């Protein structure tokens, strides 16, 4: 039967052609970074979580990229991350020799279109990322004995505000509960709000999960604070997932369900499901421009796969990432999927909330 034979030969030829293209791409990737260095822009000061993540990747990734380019981390600070981000967005060659490490909250600022920030995440491609959870606690001065009594808390429920976009996942959670709280502005960072919480000046506080475990749990042990909920994660179906660093702690949506008998709904729930994955999944994200040469992108992918399988990197990452797993390969699709899931109504809701309550401006 000649037709099936012809089709079989055609399919074989097509497969060989694709294989040839793939081999050619791999060969080009093997040569692309020969003799080159890679600059890693970190738009925040040294010592913070984003800087630590960016330097971890800078230390190990180059060893596994074909050609073994040296990756040089550089802190380009100013204007809350805008200076370094705008340089990466507008003033570097898009040839794969400049990468950028962003925090989840910087990603969120770009996604919402913060005024003055020129970073367009649609034009970028994530290379590697790492999650980070957050936990919200309440002072025992609020007079409740169990998180399920949250809506019965008494007194002025004050929450310290740094950059409101940098606290958005915790603010959206509070809005989801329709809790009457008073925002107290003027704090320089989450560490400052924790100190004020410890002093009894603030009633509600949200910290990264590692910071909670290190600095807030002692207050819980002393009977001065009580954990309310972990922000948690959201799976691909929109369901809450517990923070792996505190797996026995209820998540914000689970607590809502415990109080109201059902999961949240409406615009605020949709806003939570967009905000939380974008922040929690990307404690650190290394971005490349999406239009760099394909051989550069392929070389970076090869490098990431080699890095995550490197026992030395695994040991170092275990210490720095504090129990959270590196996201790479297909898992990175969750980052763009979170952005694609946001409706214009949800984006308007978030921008309006930030503008009306805190004066945050967007382009």
Radius of gyration: 23 Å
Distance between the termini: 65 Å
The helical percent reads: 40-55%
Structural class call reads: alpha/beta
Oligomer classification: single chain
Number of helices: 13
| Mean pLDDT, all residues | 89
Query: In percent, how much strand structure appears in the residues?
Result: 15-25%
SSE order in H/E notation? HEHEHEHEEEHEHEHEEEHHEHHHH
Q: Specify the overall morphology.
A: globular
The largest sheet is: 5 strands, mixed
Overall number of strands: 12
User: Which regions are unreliable across 5 or more consecutive residues at pLDDT < 50?
Assistant: 1-24
Strand order of the largest sheet: 2-1-3-12-4
List keywords for this structure.
alpha/beta; disordered N terminus; 5-stranded mixed β-sheet
Explain what the structure shows.
- The chain is of the alpha/beta class.
- Helices cover 46% and strands 16% of the residues.
- It has 13 helices and twelve strands.
- It has a five-stranded mixed sheet, sandwiched between helices.
- A hairpin with a 5-residue loop joins strand 10 and strand 11.
- Helix 5 packs antiparallel against helix 9 (266-280) and helix 9 runs antiparallel to helix 12.
Question: In brief, what are we looking at here?
Answer:
With 363 residues, the chain is of the alpha/beta class.
């Amino acid at each position: 039967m000649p037709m099936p034979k012809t089709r079989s030969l055609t399919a074989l030829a097509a497969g060989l052609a694709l294989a040839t293209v793939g081999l050619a791409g791999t060969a080009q990737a093997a040569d692309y970074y020969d003799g080159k260095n890679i600059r890693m822009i970190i738009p925040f000061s040294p010592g913070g979580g984003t800087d630590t993540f960016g330097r971890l990747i800078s230390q190990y990734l180059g060893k596994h990229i074909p050609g073994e380019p040296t990756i040089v981390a550089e802190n380009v600070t100013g204007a809350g991350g805008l200076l370094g981000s705008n340089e990466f967005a507008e003033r570097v060659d898009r040839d794969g020799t400049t990468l950028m490490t962003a925090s989840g909250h910087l990603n969120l600022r770009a996604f919402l279109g913060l005024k003055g920030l020129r970073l367009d995440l649609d034009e970028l491609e994530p290379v590697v990322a790492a999650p980070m959870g957050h936990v919200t606690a309440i002072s025992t001065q609020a007079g409740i004995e169990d998180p399920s009594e949250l809506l019965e808390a008494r007194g002025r429920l004050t929450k310290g505000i740094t950059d409101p976009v940098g606290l958005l996942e915790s603010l959206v959670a509070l809005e989801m509960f329709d809790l009457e709280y008073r925002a107290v502005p003027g704090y320089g960072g989450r560490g400052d709000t924790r100190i004020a919480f410890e002093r009894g000046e603030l009633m509600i506080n949200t910290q990264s999960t590692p910071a909670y475990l290190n600095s807030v749990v002692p207050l819980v042990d002393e009977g001065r604070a009580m954990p309310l909920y972990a922000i948690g994660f959201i799976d691909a179906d929109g369901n809450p997932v517990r923070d792996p660093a505190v797996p026995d702690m209820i998540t914000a949506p689970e607590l809502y369900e415990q109080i109201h008998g059902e999961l949240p709904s409406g615009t605020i729930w949709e806003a939570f499901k967009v905000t939380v994955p974008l922040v929690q999944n990307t404690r650190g994200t290394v971005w490349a421009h999406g239009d760099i040469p394909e051989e550069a992108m392929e070389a970076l992918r090869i490098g990431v796969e080699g890095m995550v399988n490197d026992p030395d990197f695994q040991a170092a990452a275990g210490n720095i990432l504090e129990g959270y797993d590196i996201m790479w390969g297909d898992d990175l699709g969750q980052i763009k999927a979170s952005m694609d899931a946001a409706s214009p109504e949800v984006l308007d809701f978030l921008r309006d909330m930030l503008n009306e309550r805190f004066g945050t401006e967007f382009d």
